[in-house]
Amino acid sequence: MATKVHMEALSPTMEEGQVVKWLKAEGDEIAAGDLLAEIETDKATMELVARGDGVLRAILLGEGRTAPVGDVIAVIAAADEDVSELVAAAAPASTASPAAEVEEEPARTAAPTATPPSHAAPATTPPPTTPPPTPQPTPPVVRTDTPAAPAAEARKDGGRLRASPVARRLAREAGLRLEAVVGSGPRGRIVKRDIEAALAAGTATAPAPMPDVPGEDFVDVPLTQIRKTIARRLVESLGPVPHFFLTADADMARATELRQQFNELELGARISFNDIVIKATALALARHPECNAWWGGDHVRRHNRVHIGVAVAIDDGLITPVVRDAHARPVAEISNEVKELASLARAKRLTPDQYTGSTFSISNLGMFGIEQFTGVINPPEAGILAVGAVEERPVALDGRVVVRPRMRMTMSCDHRIIDGAQGARFLATLKDVLEKPLSVLL
Amino acid sequence: MAVMTYRDALNEALAEEMERDDSVFLMGEEVAEYDGAYKVSRGLLDRFGDARVVDTPISELGFAGLGVGAAMAGLRPVIEFMTFNFAFLALDQVINNAAKTHYMTNGQLHVPIVFRGPNGAALQLAAQHSQACETYFVHAPGVKLVNPATPADAKGLLKAAIRDDDPVVVMESELLYNARGDVPEGEHVVPLGVADVKAEGTDVTIISHGQMVHVALQAARTLEKEDISAEVLDLRSLRPLDMEAILGSVHKTNRAVYVEECWPFTGIGAQIVALIQDEGFDDLDAPVQRITQADVPMPYARNLEKQSKPDAARVVDACRKVLYRN
After folding, report:
1. B2-183, superfamily in CATH?
2. Which residue ranges make up each domain of chain B?
3. DSSP H or E run through B137
4. What DSSP designation does B90 have?
5. What angle do CA B6, B11, B15 make, to 5 degrees?
6. Around Cβ A442, how many Cβ atoms within 10 Å?
7. How does DSSP assign B107-128, residue by residue?
8. Quick count: other Cβ atoms within 10 Å of Cβ A65?
9. Which residue of B has its CA nearest to A192?
10. CA–CA distance, B305 with A172 (Å, rounded to integer)
11. Angle between helices A331-346 and A273-287 (to 10 degrees)
12. Contact between A186 and B324 using a beta-carbon 8 Å cutoff
């Protein structure tokens, strides 16, 4: 399958770019991640990275020439794949508008049918917002030929975006891009409540309100240029809070044993797996403050204390009461507090200080037998952990298949704050704490 | 502050203005000996005599013309139509003479006249006696029109109408004559062209006037149970129109529903909608909805009459619609 090489936005304000030098020639073998070209942006000379594997079949923009962001400037494809249509379509390279991208998807999906399966090129790049959880540096740009229009419903009619007048005015005043908002009105019309929801969810342009809690410990880290670029590009791609997801599978044999022993002590408190997860998460967050953070629009606030929001289902929705300083309190105490907060929540008697100020959230659907799911981030927090059931599952251990109690956890990360590797390190720590769970008792 | 009926508030306004200004007189069918078909002029004949409280033949065009002439000559007539259903006969005097004389004489003549009486549907009076006539009168430049919803506004607006130097149509409502409410005593004058917020709200503005204000208030109470905060804006005057109040409320709520007794085709709501979309476009979150009398002559049958009139349920539905709640 062919991969179009676009003139990418290599700086936050870049509108067009000039090819300084092609680092590959037509006919060269290309692997995703290879450096293709040097591009002069409005700020600096940047490297353009390949987004797919194959052979560099066509270079459509010569050295020294300029094209607007979004134009196709080269084609990567299998050696024997017919790319003539792609090349022809991209011919007026410097006149095509970025909006033309929306039409690319059919071309891409049609390609394999025109090619015998045995000759099909390897798949193109993975979606940019789910980087592999390896400590490679994330490239500063994420544009691919995947249409980045999750909110396109309202736009389908001839490219016109439907929005009520007041929605347009509010978006304009808040500096919010309507394209990033999903409309809930008739025919996808964006109405006032959608703008309010988008603003409340915290967007790149209109940061979520970040309460200053008197006496709280935190460090505000100013955003670096690369952080700003990542934030802006991801928001354009995925919406106000660009999520990505990491899943880990923890062995819960020791935790099961620990819980059993604790509850046999008959101390008057019985702890649940969820209580153990809360404490373990808090301990892991204390060691990874980059994940215990809030998005502040122009900075990231890293908290020194861990306040865990625990999602509780109530009659007409859910609420996340907060267990404060969970990293520093005994699990039995956490357990009692969670029970109390949950019953207050169900009685709708929580006071605002009991459900605000969390630095990270946990949602557990294990009691419903859910094996694995993903949670939606509670802005301005950096992440939420979705916890599945502890279940006996066959796993490979030392070359043999054995049955072990296992638990899957999926962390949703705000990519503006957390990168794949950071989230992965945090999850590894959490898994380690759960698998050697004595520390949750400390 | 005294509690009195809408009828007595109008009576008090007439009496106070006749007391205050000798040039004010009342003329119409059965206003004197019979105290008025709806008893609005009760006691005025005894108090002010038959030179100032004048019974007329059944001749709307004739006595409306007498009134216009008297106004041109310097008096301040109050012409009562037994109902506005009968006033169509007098439209030539109202529109061609009362409304235009000031303009056509380059301001040399004023026509300080009031045309008043009940307007709109009561109960089972059928097609010819159950109609809302606002549009016929406000269409012509030169006429002012007020339509009070409460006893206090009835008194204050009628006093302002009598004192105004231009023709003013005061539309009352048969169904409101017995409504009670607080009425300030003495000098209570409600200026023409000033709307009044009858209920504060933040989510949707229900705009209305006259007896439909009570339908709007009833709808607002229903909506409150759904956590929808409706603002009820009583225009009180249709000409001059309080555009600032309308636009201000829509600016706050972003949604508007108009309720009127007129028919939909070129009704008052059409004017209001045009104004809002023209000057309040950037404030709108949804198209403005109109709830009106059904586009048929008023049926006599009780069930059909009920279905054809604007009611709170329809207003509630329209509010849900502009809030995208249905």
Report:
1. Thiamin diphosphate (ThDP)-binding fold, Pyr/PP domains (3.40.50.970)
2. 2-183, 196-322
3. helix B134-138
4. G
5. 150
6. 9
7. TS-----EEEEE-S--SS--GG
8. 13
9. B285
10. 47
11. 110
12. yes
Task: Using the structure block, give the residue that is written with the tokens 């009780």.
Answer: B302
Asked whether A363 and A343 are in contact (CB, 8 A), the reply is no
Closest CA to A177 of A148, A156, A138: A148
Angstrom CA distances, A196 to A178, A208, A366, A437, B319, stand at 12, 11, 33, 43, 19
Tokens at B295, concatenated: 């586009």
Are A191 and B284 a contacting pair at CB < 8 A? no
Identify the CA nearest to B284 among candidates A195, A161, A164: A164
Closest residue by Cα to residue A211 from A390, A337, A379, A44: A379
B282 touches chain A (CB under 8 A): yes
Which candidate, B209, B200, B206, places its Cα nearest to that of B314? Answer: B206
Fold: same for B2-183 and B196-322: yes
Which domains does chain A carry?
A: 3-119 (2.40.50.100), 152-201 (4.10.320.10), 218-441 (3.30.559.10)
ipTM, two decimals, is: 0.73
Question: What are the start-end ranges of the H helices in A296-396?
Answer: 331-346, 352-355
d(CA B163, CA B112): 8
Provide the pairing of β-strand B2-5 with B180-183.
antiparallel
**3-class DSSP assignment, residue A287:** helix
Pairing of strands A218-222, A299-303: antiparallel
Identify the sign of the CA torsion B93, B99, B104, B109: positive
Do B254 and B260 meet the contact criterion of CB atoms below 8 Å apart?
no
In tens digits, chain A (442 residues) has pLDDT values of 788 888 887 766 677 888 889 999 989 998 888 889 988 876 677 888 888 888 999 899 988 888 888 888 999 988 888 888 888 877 544 433 333 333 333 333 333 333 333 444 444 444 444 444 444 443 333 333 333 333 444 444 455 788 999 998 888 888 787 877 878 888 888 999 888 888 877 543 444 445 555 556 778 887 777 777 777 766 766 677 888 999 999 999 999 999 998 888 877 778 999 999 999 999 999 999 999 999 988 889 999 999 999 998 887 777 889 999 999 998 989 999 999 999 888 887 888 788 888 999 999 999 888 999 998 888 889 999 999 999 999 999 889 999 999 999 999 999 999 999 999 999 999 999 999 998 888 7
Backbone phi, psi, residue A409, to 5°: -125, 135
Residue A106 sits at the chain B interface (C-beta within 8 Å): no
Nearest to B284 among A166, A184, A193 (CB): A166
- What is each CA distance from A174 to A191, A195, A237, B1, in whole angstroms? 15, 9, 19, 48
Q: State if pTM tops 0.80.
A: no
Mutate to test the interface with A, among B285, B289, B321 (most CBs of A within 10 A): B285
Is residue A385 within 8 Å of A364, Cβ to Cβ?
no
Report d(CA B34, CA B51) in Å as an integer.
Answer: 16
> Residue with structure tokens 């929705």?
A317
- Residue B257 and residue B174 in contact, taking contact as beta carbons nearer than 8 Å: no
DSSP state letter for B97: I
Pick the CATH number of B196-322 from 3.40.50.2300, 3.40.50.920, 1.10.8.420, 1.20.58.220: 3.40.50.920
Contact B282 A166 (CB under 8 A): yes
Q: Which of B2, B133, B117 is nearest to B64 (CA)?
A: B117
- For residue B205, the cross-strand partners are B231, B256
Dist CA A70 CA A147 (whole Å): 11
Nearest beta carbon to residue B254 from set A166, A184, A185: A166
